[in-house]
Amino acid sequence: GAVVSQHPSRVICKSGTSVKIECRSLDFQATTMFWYRQFPKQSLMLMATSNEGSKATYEQGVEKDKFLINHASLTLSTLTVTSAHPEDSSFYICSASSVYSTDTQYFGPGTRLTVL
Amino acid sequence: KQEVTQIPAALSVPEGENLVLNCSFTDSAIYNLQWFRQDPGKGLTSLLLIQSSQREQTSGRLNASLDKSSGRSTLYIAASQPGDSATYLCAVVMDSSYKLIFGSGTRLLVRP
């Protein structure tokens, strides 16, 4: 149980395009989802927290107009990187927690974004 | 601002050794502390979660301790195996927002 999937696992895009990453909780309802980014050999940095049906809360220094987060249902959250640039190349990981286990986050396998 | 530090950054040991990974945090008013494992290019697997009122948690060959007053946690791995090779991350939660603040990780290599 408690499986989180991400799609796609890898994406390569041209500079200036937008990329959407999906995060799904497969066997539970995720009241809260978190989005992280991870640069090579560095730790995870929280980008934003999203609760189903409400606007995401972004961490300081994260541009909300660049990283659009939507949490439209209890099993799906999306992160859209708009007008991507090479410096946005990173590993993006989502996690989800349920109302029954709010202090436990279940992590997705991550999405490797490369912007050329 | 909470800062989480992990020492060492990398560790290479022969199979069978017992080892200790260290995590320290600057603000002792934590809600809980968690240890995760990350394999290369993959997501995170939760290993152990220690609530602020607890001093240790055990799962199989893993034992994690927490000393809130000194801002330290250790992850003890007994009888290490090559399959334990991965990056180990500790993270703290400060409040009921459940936001995780991660350390930079320890990359472990267990040599056959």
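qc> The mean pLDDT of chain A is 92.
qc> done
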